[in-house]
Specification:
5 strands, 105 residues, alpha+beta
Protein backbone atom coordinates (compact mmCIF):
# COMPACT_ATOMS: atom_id res chain seq x y z
CA UNK A 1 0.00 0.00 0.00
CA UNK A 2 1.34 3.44 -0.82
CA UNK A 3 0.25 7.05 -0.65
CA UNK A 4 1.91 9.78 -2.71
CA UNK A 5 1.46 13.50 -2.15
CA UNK A 6 3.66 15.78 -4.18
CA UNK A 7 7.27 14.75 -3.58
CA UNK A 8 6.56 12.51 -0.57
CA UNK A 9 5.64 8.82 -0.67
CA UNK A 10 4.61 6.58 2.22
CA UNK A 11 4.74 2.83 1.64
CA UNK A 12 3.66 -0.04 3.88
CA UNK A 13 5.05 -3.33 2.62
CA UNK A 14 5.76 -6.89 3.65
CA UNK A 15 9.47 -7.67 3.54
CA UNK A 16 9.32 -10.71 5.82
CA UNK A 17 9.68 -9.05 9.22
CA UNK A 18 8.22 -10.29 12.48
CA UNK A 19 8.24 -9.34 16.13
CA UNK A 20 11.85 -10.36 16.66
CA UNK A 21 13.46 -9.78 13.27
CA UNK A 22 12.70 -12.14 10.41
CA UNK A 23 9.16 -13.52 10.60
CA UNK A 24 9.07 -17.14 11.75
CA UNK A 25 5.85 -18.85 10.63
CA UNK A 26 6.71 -21.83 12.86
CA UNK A 27 6.58 -19.62 15.96
CA UNK A 28 2.95 -19.36 17.13
CA UNK A 29 3.77 -16.13 18.96
CA UNK A 30 5.35 -14.35 15.99
CA UNK A 31 3.37 -11.95 13.79
CA UNK A 32 4.15 -11.03 10.20
CA UNK A 33 4.54 -7.22 10.19
CA UNK A 34 4.72 -4.43 7.62
CA UNK A 35 7.62 -2.04 7.08
CA UNK A 36 7.02 1.68 6.69
CA UNK A 37 9.17 3.52 4.14
CA UNK A 38 9.07 7.28 3.73
CA UNK A 39 10.54 8.48 0.45
CA UNK A 40 11.09 11.71 -1.40
CA UNK A 41 11.32 12.36 -5.11
CA UNK A 42 14.84 13.50 -6.00
CA UNK A 43 15.84 15.98 -8.69
CA UNK A 44 16.34 13.17 -11.22
CA UNK A 45 12.86 11.72 -10.68
CA UNK A 46 13.83 8.76 -8.45
CA UNK A 47 12.23 7.87 -5.14
CA UNK A 48 14.77 7.80 -2.30
CA UNK A 49 14.16 6.77 1.30
CA UNK A 50 14.75 9.80 3.54
CA UNK A 51 17.25 9.57 6.40
CA UNK A 52 15.68 7.58 9.24
CA UNK A 53 12.65 6.95 7.03
CA UNK A 54 12.34 3.17 7.21
CA UNK A 55 10.95 1.30 10.22
CA UNK A 56 9.23 -1.96 11.01
CA UNK A 57 5.74 -1.27 12.40
CA UNK A 58 3.27 -3.17 14.54
CA UNK A 59 0.89 -3.41 11.58
CA UNK A 60 0.15 -7.06 10.71
CA UNK A 61 0.46 -8.03 7.05
CA UNK A 62 -3.15 -9.25 6.99
CA UNK A 63 -4.52 -5.77 7.81
CA UNK A 64 -7.36 -4.80 5.46
CA UNK A 65 -6.79 -2.29 2.65
CA UNK A 66 -9.17 0.35 4.08
CA UNK A 67 -7.30 0.31 7.40
CA UNK A 68 -3.93 0.46 5.61
CA UNK A 69 -5.15 3.51 3.70
CA UNK A 70 -6.01 5.22 6.99
CA UNK A 71 -2.63 4.31 8.46
CA UNK A 72 -0.81 5.69 5.40
CA UNK A 73 -2.79 8.91 5.84
CA UNK A 74 -1.74 9.18 9.50
CA UNK A 75 1.90 8.69 8.52
CA UNK A 76 1.73 11.18 5.65
CA UNK A 77 0.08 13.82 7.81
CA UNK A 78 2.88 13.51 10.37
CA UNK A 79 5.88 13.55 8.02
CA UNK A 80 5.01 15.43 4.82
CA UNK A 81 5.87 18.98 5.87
CA UNK A 82 9.13 17.94 7.55
CA UNK A 83 10.24 15.87 4.55
CA UNK A 84 9.45 18.71 2.15
CA UNK A 85 11.44 21.11 4.34
CA UNK A 86 14.38 18.70 4.55
CA UNK A 87 14.04 18.32 8.32
CA UNK A 88 14.73 15.18 10.35
CA UNK A 89 11.87 12.76 10.87
CA UNK A 90 13.80 10.41 13.15
CA UNK A 91 11.73 10.95 16.32
CA UNK A 92 8.46 10.98 14.36
CA UNK A 93 9.47 7.81 12.52
CA UNK A 94 10.30 6.10 15.79
CA UNK A 95 6.88 7.07 17.18
CA UNK A 96 5.10 5.96 14.00
CA UNK A 97 6.80 2.55 14.16
CA UNK A 98 4.41 1.78 17.04
CA UNK A 99 1.34 2.28 14.83
CA UNK A 100 -1.15 -0.54 14.76
CA UNK A 101 -4.59 -1.00 13.19
CA UNK A 102 -6.36 -0.18 16.45
CA UNK A 103 -5.02 3.37 16.19
CA UNK A 104 -7.37 4.16 13.28
CA UNK A 105 -10.45 1.98 13.80
Amino acid sequence: MELIEGTVKVTLEDIGEGLCGEYNPDDPYDISLLRMDIETLDEEGYWTIVDDGSYCTLIPTETSAPVLEKLCRVIMDRVKDRVEEGLSIKKIGEELSWLCPEDVV
